[in-house]
Amino acid sequence: MALYVPGPLSGPAPLRDRSRNPIWRFRRLFFVAAVLVAAAAAVVWSFASQVDLDEANLADELTETSYICTAEVDLGCNADNAINQLAFEGEDRLVVTYEELPEVLIQAVIATEDKSFFEHQGFDPVGLTRASYQTIRRRFTGEGSVQGGSTITQQYVKLITEDSADELSRKGREVVRAIKLEQLLADDPEIGSKQAAKEEILERYLNRAFFGRRSLGVAAASRAYFDKDLADITLPEAAFLAGLIRNPNNAEPLQNPEEAARRRSVTLGLMTELGYITEDQRIAADNDQWSSLVRETASAEGLGDVGGAEYGTEFFMTIVRRQLAEIFPNNEYFQRSLRVYTTLDHDLQRLAHRTIVGRLDPNNPDMPLGSLVSLDDQGRVVAMMAGSDFDRSQVNLAVSGSGLFEGGSGGSGYEPGSTMKPIVMAEFIEQGFSPASYYENKPVEYPEWEWNPSGGTSKIPNHRTVAEAMRWSSNAVFAQMIFTVGIEQATDMGRRLGLTSSIENVPSFVLGSNTTSPLDVASVYSTFKREGVRQDPVFIDRIEDADGNVLCWYPTEPGDCSGGEPGSGQRQGEQVIGAAVARQVNATLVDVVANGTGKAAQLPVEVDGATTFRAAAGKTGTTNNARHAWFAGFSCKLTTSVWVGYPGVQGEAPRYMDDDWIVDEGNPAREAEGLPPLPLMEELFGEGYDEISGGTVPAELWQQFMMQATANDEPCEIATESPNANQRILGQELLTSLGPCPGPSAEYLAQKAREEAEANQSTSTPEGDGGDGGNEEGASGDYGTGEIQNVTLRWTDALYFQGNGNGNGNRRQQEENNGGNQENNGGNNGGFTPTTKPCLPVDEDGKLLPTTTIDPAGPSTATTVDPNSTSSTDTTLDPNQDPNATSTETTDTTQPPETEPTQPPEETQPTVSVDRPGNGNGNGNGNGNGNGNGGNDG
Fold it and tell me: What is the pTM of this model?
């Protein structure tokens, strides 16, 4: 049998079938895949290495809303005491810490936005894949939904980087940044763990997210929707807020209640699925009615809720916002977490509003409008009544016409009338002239200017000192004065003192033909009060950052925030006129209130049962036919201007506060157009108010405001000064051709009376010797030196002084029985009859008085009174007053007739009182009682 022998050991092995091995079959594909994975990893690594997080992304110092507070808040301006809040585009943000986030809110947000937030590393692969697929599908097919798929960390990264491109690369960048951010925060020594990093991210996200209703951050949203602190929100409220995050505008509950309810239901359902709440809690929360949850939206668009809106504070806030935008441009002031301390005094603002609307009913369309601006002694606007209803009209009546707030102030301003006269007086004195200078007091004409000013007491044919002209607002005298000083010099003085609106170089500037604002007028008069130091009005006291560091004091010019020394808060002013010049002007303004057209603005106070007056100075102003009426003036601490009038409507005829105009022109024109008649001023204001001039309603409103605003001020005196010997007295030649007056002037007698009163005040009257049974004559009484009493002066065919009290008996006299009761004795009709013709002043003996010094009829020097003193207010009758003359101050300008009629009516000068001693006779009664009685006041 044959033996089988195998082949050599080195022979080929039998072939195997490798097709059954899948690795071998796809070896080339695996190789390509490995190469692609390596390449992809390289690309991802390269991409990731190029996506950085800068320090701003890491720190992300959130800025809160900027808060605005009134002057009552000295420190710590915040959401609780702010009058207004500011954030970008009217948005509001309150920053809260993670510990301040209610647990129910955290659960609602996690359930709605990112249920695995506390487990993932910054991104959710499943959600990212879904979102990427939908993005690719939408790009190439036009179909597919917009899905986020983003974690809370990714959403936060998008907020802080503002990378909003709709592309895959943006999603990739978000993923990389989210991973990096979580890792960097976890490694931060101050944070220290992954859990703390997650809490930090959630805190930042909920402080940055937009929730609608101008709310940035969930704390602001809680206030906007529920008007409550975040700590107090309930389960249904938390679910509602969580549902708002993705698209808050489409879920506004008052406009889209169904969508808002749907989102809330979805959140509540997700919270139930995750075990945060029970089914019963979900049902109860889902059944809550929206009417019990959501508040109405704010009514003031762009301003948010403004404290004190019922007192007109929105007008003030619009100016503050405009100034902040100028100081911090490009919306920077929304991002600085500012604390803005304004100058507005809430109590004075309420008083200003109450003063104006209490007299000028805003609900009566026929009533004139009114505005009031009050500045403190450093030029801070403490009250500004600029309109009664911000929602009805946002035109700011107080700054209309002010150059400080061009573009948005509303209107070109109003003609200020005779409130401009002190400006020309200041230029007159600065050029070296004395207020004792004389001008002819008669109507004047300037054909080259087509100007024939009248009004005031200009129709009285006499000479008049400049000081008297201010007291009685003589247009003729001031019209001559502006040519003495120069028109350009006068208008430049106006700009120096505080007028910011444009001024035309015309002579009628002296009578107020320019347009300006109550704010500018107050600024001018506050410069006089500060003895020539100009401090432009400010609305902001200081601006601080969130840490309380002062960024600037008293901003004035656009973009300027440098007024004031750091740490002091004291404003720096500019000495625009000499202090002595301002004090001389002040003396005439004090006289206007004490003795002239502004007597309705006096500030009486009762001290120990006697009436005296607080220090006050000011000037009336009335334009033609009383379209605008003003009073501007100051006490020792406050400067206030009041405007009353009809500002006018574009395309409509002007309207005037003068019954003669209404009867003769206004209503006939309206009747022709088929319009209802206008009511008379007497129907609106009462009997005696047929014309509203500066000395009536504006002066009365000024007095009402200032009486209460200065009620607690310490007694003070306004800085005044008399002219000096070096000042030039013009117009003395007007006296040289005149004859002596037949008797002493009223002012001279008043001065003599004051001197005698000071010497003999409170001296008792001794008794006379008694008669025998009434048959014998009683001995004459000694000199009667009783206290000086008030005497009313009246105009008849001539001037008489009527006495009504005990006065100085100037001689001893013995009469039968009831001696001294004859006419002209006892001061009953004592006095003299002066002429109304121009004459040289004389003393009681008929001797000429010196005319090289200040006119005795000039301004009184005892016109600012300490309320605690016992002196009385000196009042002066205009000695040149014509019995038939009137004293309305009106402004004839170069304006077209339809704007300013050329024939103004005239205002009757109010009754004037004067203290005057009498020339009554001491007399003894011969009826047995032996009483010697002092003579009556004459």
Answer: 0.64
